[in-house]
């Protein structure tokens, strides 16, 4: 089968599931490669011909220079950190498949959501904050590093974040870190010197806003619980107790969101803002952010992405 759309994802990515369902409904030929299943396929990449042949459980596929688009959902293949040391074989397998994913950039004439190089840079928190500030966004006062004296110079509460998403394993348990609010004086040298971190002023009161940009389209929702703003990290609240309400952003904020995505070389971005004391403040952008949980019959992000991938938008 000649592939029109190539998808690089994970078996656990619900957002990708929604897109593939829409592609099947539209009768589009696509190939989805999940990172957990790479070894189930026999793949041949031929750079000089800009061609990839794939033999797998569901058949034979050909990806050529005429492939329409690439939906790239797994740019950080090596992010997961197991609780015990990897064997030499496993280290080799992971590193070489990561290099293989980078090699897919030979399909440079396709529409990418998102181009790998742009994705890696956009995931860097310091870089995205700098770009957002240059575009006129308000951003929180931020310090990144492992210097407790600098962190203690904040006045008022601070919020601590990892520089990158932390996904750890301990035995059979998967561990994930959330943002933590604390007092600056608690950030002592013996507690922070080993691992660099992001420390920002804690803004309160605040209303969380998720902005999803797809090409020239934008979806904005405010996030509440029982109709009220959520003081802590809203991701730790039970999903059935969280509401997502469509909102209209001020024109300049909407324009800044769209400009930021383009400035970062992206076609998709999941942007977190907060509204505090009448101001909209940029928190972060995720170039491979999840969005499946906010899709509704009236908020069809899946349809919008499908139309972008097929060139209909």
Descriptive notes:
There is one protein chain. With 313 residues, the chain is of the alpha+beta class. The chain has 3 domains: 5-113, 3-Layer(aba) Sandwich (Rossmann fold); 120-138 and 205-307, D-amino Acid Aminotransferase, Chain A, domain 1 (2-Layer Sandwich); 142-201, no CATH class. It contains 8 helices and 18 strands. It has helices at 14-26, 88-103, 116-122, 125-134, 148-151, 189-192, 251-263, 301-309, and strands at 5-9, 30-34, 42-46, 51-56, 59-63, 69-72, 111-113, 142-145, 158-161, 167-170, 173-176, 180-182, 197-201, 207-214, 217-224, 243-246, 268-276, 279-286. The strands form 5 sheets. The protein has a 5-stranded antiparallel β-sheet. It has a 4-stranded parallel β-sheet with strand order 2-1-6-7, covered by helices on one side. β1 (5-9), α1 (14-26) and β2 form a beta-alpha-beta unit. α1 crosses α8 (301-309). The radius of gyration is 21 Å and the shape is globular. The mean pLDDT is 90.
Strand content: 25-35%
Number of domains: 3
The CATH superfamily label of the largest domain reads: ATP-grasp fold, B domain
CATH class of the largest domain: Alpha Beta
String of helices and strands: EHEEEEEHEHHEHEEEEHEEEEHEEH
Any idea what the radius of gyration is?
Answer: 21 Å
The coarse silhouette is globular
- Architecture of the largest domain, CATH level 2? 2-Layer Sandwich
Given helix and strand content, the structural type is alpha+beta
Number of helices: 8
The biggest beta sheet reads: 5 strands, antiparallel
Low-confidence stretches: none
Count of beta strands: 18
